[in-house]
Write a structure and sequence with these properties.
Layout (H helix, E strand, L loop, with lengths): L55 H10 L2 E6 L6 E4 L2 E4 L7 H11 L2 H10 L1 E8 L3 E10 L2 E9 L14 H6 L4 E6 L6 H15 L3 E6 L12 E6 L7 H8 L6 E4 L5 H12 L3 E6 L4 H10 L6 H11 E11 L6 E9 L2 H8 L7 H7 L1 H4 L4 H10 L5 H7 L3 H8 L11 H7 L1
Parallel strand pairs: 7-11, 7-12, 8-9, 8-10, 10-11
Antiparallel strand pairs: 1-2, 1-6, 2-3, 4-5, 5-6, 12-13
Helix pairs in contact: 6-7, 9-10, 13-14, 13-16, 14-15
Length: about 425
Amino acid sequence: MADPAGNPPAGGAPQPPRAPAAPPAPGAAAPRATQAVPAAGIAGATPGPVTPPYNYKQVLQLMVQMNGSDLHLKVGRPPTARINGELQGLDLPPLRPEDLRSIGEQIIPPKQRKEYEVEKEADFAVGVPGVGRFRVNMYQQRGSIAYAFRAIAFQALSIEDLNLPKVCEEISMKPRGLILVTGITGSGKSTALASMIYYVNEHRHANIITIEDPIEFLHRDINCHINQREVGTDTGSFAQALRRVLRQDPDIVLIGEIRDLETLEIALKAADTGHLVFSTLHTQDATQTINRVLSFYPPHQQADVRSSLSTTLQAVISLRLVPRSDRAGRIPACEILINTAAVRDNIRDMTKSLDIPDLIKEGTVQYGMQSFDQSLMNWYSKGVISYENALFYASSPSEFALRVQGIAGTSDTTFDHVKQDAR
């Protein structure tokens, strides 16, 4: 039997997280085996038998003990965790519809319950004492409830602890402008942003306002005054919060994600009026990030937005998490773009196509910029990642393979600093 904290028994596989029914008191009538009950308003649920509450906390605890990043729950399959980027089923019974209904009854806030009833999906965060904090997406698939849990650290890690480039500290301390952290889902964008806010919190005295959906990392005041606002709880929407944020005397504004044109325009305005703005985009690299920002606007506004972006953008940090070969875990490969004079001219000039990769290579030594392939070469040279994984995550695999073989033009010094660091 699990202990009161929900830990699985020692020396064996974890037991199914279904609490047994309590035996009847002496002389009392035996309880009915089942009883039909309504689904308490959760859409996608049908009346079913009374069952003990599903012990989802024990499942989350098991996932955390295995260093998992995500937990997926759906009918007919055991709980499935993402461990070092790979999905792995846990040694637990397949989930039943009543198990998933029980989880919803235990964790979903009232406002998100109404949202789920209408939209068939909802986002929120949940904290489990002694286990961790989790971002939750509750959704419906094939007429039944499903969940995706994302583990969130209780406290943001430092830039150094996350193995991010040192230049991220300099970027965090910019006095104004727009800083974008990009990558695919699960690439560490929110974690990287939290580490940069943590660095600012230690080294500046500023008023920081975050607008998130939902709040992930909880920041405590160190040297900064931090207010964290959650969409749906503290404000109606990103746009609503952003329309009023400039009246709250912020020095720094963190926007969880730029999702639409209105959010982007307010972010650019805040950056243009002397504020430092952090946000994220779901893009794969710096070039795609700039193109995505431009794509929000119609053709007749391209000249204006190019001019605005060229002056407000400070940096783009793009991330890819790569499995380590020296030990368990993953490490970030980072592409860093700093908005230098040459980059500004390239963004502003509509007669020229974006030439961001070459500008990154030219700014490696002087400005601390780096491409994904340079970052991968650095980790590969140090024995942190394997050649196969480096090649898989490289932006230009054929060129990367030639670099490993030592084939390069005599005038190309792009990877010279990597060779020196590996010595």
